[in-house]
Design a protein that fits this description.
The complex is a heterodimer of chains A (290) and B (351). Chain A has 290 residues and is mainly α. Chain A is built from 13 helices and no strands. The chains are: A mainly alpha (290), B mainly alpha (351).
C-alpha cells in the first residue's frame, strides 16, 4: 500500500516522471545494445576503430555521430557506454550495499566495542574526500575497470553502513524483536529474519538512487585516465578523447563539437535522470516538507 | 534561552570527544594509505624515503637502508616516525620534496577555493531569496531547473565546454594560472612574495596588470567549481527563507507597516542565513576536494592538478603527501563546521 502511494506520487510529479522516462530510455538502449550497435570483435565493450587517423571525423553516413581521435566510433561508444554505465553503477551499488549492510548491521546489532571500532572505520573513509580517495585507490591498484569499481565500492560503503546502523538500532528496540528474543530465537535468526527485513528498505532506496552519482564519479576517474583502459566504450573515456580537440581550428573553433557534446550529453542526461528521481523521493519521504 | 549547566556539559563532552577522535581518525587514514602502498614493489615505494633525485640511481641501497622488504607493521611504524617529523619523501612529478611541493601548490588552490566560495555564497543567497519570494513562479521553477542541472553537470564536461567557448571561440579566458607576460613580472626582481596568493600579492606589489591577469585566469575554474555548491546553496537558502517568512515575527513586521525590502532583507533574511554559514564552511572544504578535476581540466597549477599527476604517474610519495594533506584539511574543516553549527544555532547544541 505504501509503495503504491509512492509510485503514484512519482508519476504525478513532472520532474520525476521526466527522470523516469529518460531512465527507461537508457535501460532500453542498454538492453538492446547488441541490436543497436552490432558487435564486431570479441569484446563488446571495445570500441571498433575506423582506421587509425588521428583527427576526429564529423558525423557522416558511416559514423552517424562521428568519430573521436584515433577513429573510435562515437555512436558505438555511447550505446555500449550506456550498458557500461549500468554495469558499473549497479555492480558498485550492489557490492557497497552488501558490505554496508553487513558492517553497519553488525555494528548496530552487536553494539559495544564492535560498534565503536566499525564506526571509527567509516570515519576513516569519510576523512578523505571520496573523489580523492577513489583516485588514490584506483591509482595504486593499477588503472583498469575492475580496480576502478573496487575503488568506488571502498568509497561508497560507509554511508550505507551508517544508515543501516541507525535503522537497526531503532528496530532492535521494537516489541516484535523483544518478543522473538523472549521466544528463544537465536541471535542470527533475530538479525536476519526479524531486524534486517524491517531495516533494509530505506538504505536500498538511498543506494539505488546513488547510481547516477557513482557513474559520475566513475566517468571522472576514467576521464583522468584512472579508470577504464583506452578504447573501452565508456562515457568518461570518450570525453577524455575529446580533450585535445575542444579548441578546434583557427577558422572554426567548434569544428570538433561532437567529440565532447555527444558523450557529454549522454552523461548529463543519465545523471540528471537519477537526480530528478532522487529529488522526488526525498520530497516524498521527508515529512517536514508537507 | 540561556543554556543550562547540564546542556553545557553535554556540549563540552561532545566537543572534547570530537577533538580527541581526530588524531585517531588521521592515524587510521595513514594506515589505510600505507596499507594500499604495500601492493607496490619496494622500488616504487622508495620515493617515500628519499630527499634528492640523485638517490634514485641507488635504489637498492635505499630499499636496504629503510628495510622496505620488512613486515608491513615494522615499515609502517618507521614511516609514521618519518612523517611525524614532516618528512614525506621526494615527489618525482613535482621535482621537489613533497613538503616543498605542497607549499608551492597549496596557495593557488586556496585562492581558487576562496574566490569560488565567495561567489557561491553571494549568488546562492541572492538567488535563494529570489526563489523564495517568487515561490512556484517562473523564476523559482527556472532556478530549480538550473540547480538540478548544476548538480548533474559533470564538471569536466562543463569545464571543457567553457574552454571551447570562452577560450577557443572568444579567446577571453585562457587556461593556466597566469599568462607569460605576468610570469615575467611575478618571477622578476621587483615582485615580493608576501602570501603566495597571487591575487593579494599582486595588489601589495601594486602590479595591477598581474592582478587582472590572474583574475581573468581564475574566472572559468572558479565558475566551474562553483556550480554544484551553488545549486545546493540556492536550495538551502530558499527553504530556510520560506521557513522564516512563515513565522509570526514576519507577519508582525508587515503589520507594523515595514516595507517588503526591510522585512525580507533585514528581518527574515538575517535569520535565514544561519544554516548558510555552516553550509558554506562545509562547502568550502568540499570545494578543496573538488578542485582535483577542475584543476586538471584547466591546467591550473594547484594542489589538485599535482595530485592527479602523481596518481597518473604513480608518484607514491606525492600521492601519499597529497592525500594526507587533503585528509587533514578535510577533518579539521568538518570539525570547525560542526562546532560553528552548534555555536550559531543553540537549538542544535542539545542534540
Amino acid at each position: 500500500m505504501y509503495d503504491k502511494k509512492i509510485f503514484k506520487k512519482i508519476l504525478n510529479n513532472k520532474n520525476s516522471l521526466a527522470g523516469l522516462l529518460i531512465l527507461l530510455f537508457f535501460i532500453f538502449v542498454a538492453l538492446l545494445a547488441p541490436i543497436l550497435a552490432p558487435v564486431k570483435g570479441n569484446d563488446a565493450y571495445k570500441m571498433p576503430q575506423a582506421g587509425y587517423a588521428v583527427e576526429p571525423q564529423a558525423p557522416s553516413h558511416a559514423n552517424i555521430l562521428g568519430t573521436t581521435e584515433n577513429q573510435y566510433d562515437l555512436y558505438y561508444g555511447v550505446v555500449w557506454g550506456t550498458r557500461m554505465a549500468f554495469k558499473v553503477g549497479i555492480t558498485v551499488v550492489f557490492l557497497a550495499l552488501i558490505i554496508g549492510i553487513l558492517i553497519g548491521g553488525a555494528a548496530g546489532f552487536l553494539g559495544g566495542w564492535i560498534d565503536e571500532v566499525l564506526m571509527r572505520l567509516t570515519d576513516v573513509v569519510f576523512a578523505v574526500p571520496s573523489m580523492v580517495l577513489a583516485m588514490v585507490i584506483a591509482a595504486m591498484l593499477g588503472p583498469d575497470l575492475k580496480n576502478m569499481m573496487i575503488a568506488l565500492t571502498v568509497v561508497a560503503w560507509p554511508s550505507y553502513a551508517r544508515l543501516i546502523r541507525g535503522d537497526v538500532l531503532s528496530v532492535k528496540e521494537r516489541n516484535f524483536v523483544v518478543a522473538a528474543r523472549a521466544l528463544g530465537a537465536g541471535r542470527r535468526r533475530i538479525f536476519f529474519r526479524h531486524i534486517l527485513p524491517n531495516a533494509i528498505y530505506p538504505v536500498i532506496i538511498v543506494a539505488s538512487l546513488d547510481i547516477g552519482y557513482i557513474v559520475l564519479t566513475a566517468s571522472s576517474l576514467s576521464f583522468l585516465g584512472l579508470g577504464s583502459q583506452l578504447g573501452t566504450a565508456d562515457w568518461g573515456q570518450l570525453v577524455a578523447l575529446s580533450r585535445n580537440w575542444i579548441l578546434g581550428t583557427h577558422a572554426d573553433p567548434f569544428v570538433y563539437w561532437y567529440t565532447i557534446v555527444v558523450p557529454g550529453t549522454a552523461l548529463l542526461l543519465f545523471v540528471l535522470a537519477w537526480n530528478m528521481l532522487g529529488d522526488a523521493f526525498r520530497d516524498i519521504l521527508d515529512p517536514r516538507q508537507h | 534561552m540561556p543554556l543550562r549547566l547540564k546542556d553545557k556539559r553535554i556540549m563540552f563532552s561532545y566537543i572534547s570527544r570530537r577533538v580527541a577522535m581526530m588524531p585517531l581518525v588521521m592515524l587510521g587514514v595513514t594506515f589505510l594509505l600505507f596499507f594500499l602502498t604495500q601492493r607496490l614493489s619496494p622500488e616504487m615505494r622508495a620515493s617515500l624515503y628519499i630527499h634528492d633525485p640523485r638517490q634514485m640511481s641507488s635504489l637498492q641501497e635505499v630499499i636496504k637502508e629503510h628495510g622496505l622488504n620488512d613486515p608491513m607493521m615494522v615499515q609502517y611504524g618507521r614511516w609514521l616516525g618519518r612523517i611525524a617529523h614532516g618528512d614525506f619523501g621526494y615527489s618525482e612529478t613535482a621535482n621537489m620534496p613533497v613538503t616543498d611541493a605542497i607549499k608551492a601548490y597549496l596557495p593557488a588552490t586556496i585562492q581558487l577555493a576562496v574566490v569560488s566560495i565567495i561567489l557561491v555564497v553571494f549568488f546562492g543567497v541572492w538567488f535563494g531569496i529570489m526563489s523564495a519570494m517568487y515561490k512556484d513562479k517562473f523564476l523559482d521553477n527556472f532556478l530549480r531547473l538550473v540547480s538540478l542541472g548544476g548538480f548533474s553537470l559533470p564538471i569536466f564536461v562543463l569545464g571543457l565546454l567553457l574552454l571551447m567557448i570562452f577560450y577557443g571561440k572568444l579567446g577571453w579566458f585562457p587556461p593556466g594560472a597566469y599568462s607569460f607576460s605576468s610570469d615575467v613580472i611575478i618571477h622578476g626582481p621587483s615582485f615580493t612574495n608576501y602570501t603566495g596568493l597571487l591575487l593579494i600579492d599582486s595588489l601589495l606589489n601594486l602590479k595591477f596588470y598581474v592582478f587582472f591577469d590572474v583574475l581573468r585566469h581564475l574566472i572559468l575554474p572558479a565558475f566551474t567549481l562553483c556550480i554544484g555548491s551553488f545549486a545546493l546553496m540556492v536550495r538551502v537558502m530558499r527553504s530556510s527563507m520560506l521557513e522564516e517568512l512563515g513565522k509570526d515575527y514576519v507577519k508582525s513586521a508587515y503589520a507594523r507597516g515595514l516595507s517588503d525590502f526591510a522585512v525580507v532583507y533585514k528581518h527574515a533574511g538575517r535569520n535565514a542565513l544561519i544554516p548558510i554559514v555552516t553550509l558554506a564552511s562545509i562547502q568550502f572544504i568540499r570545494l578543496l576536494g573538488g578542485t582535483v578535476i577542475v584543476e586538471a581540466v584547466f591546467d591550473y597549477p594547484g594542489i589538485g592538478r599535482w595530485g592527479v599527476q602523481c596518481a597518473q604517474q604513480l608518484d607514491i610519495a606525492g600521492v601519499m603527501g597529497f592525500s594526507l594533506m587533503v585528509a587533514a584539511l578535510f577533518v579539521v574543516g568538518n570539525l570547525v563546521a560542526d562546532l560553528l553549527y552548534g555555536v550559531l544555532d543553540p537549538r542544535i547544541r542539545l542534540k
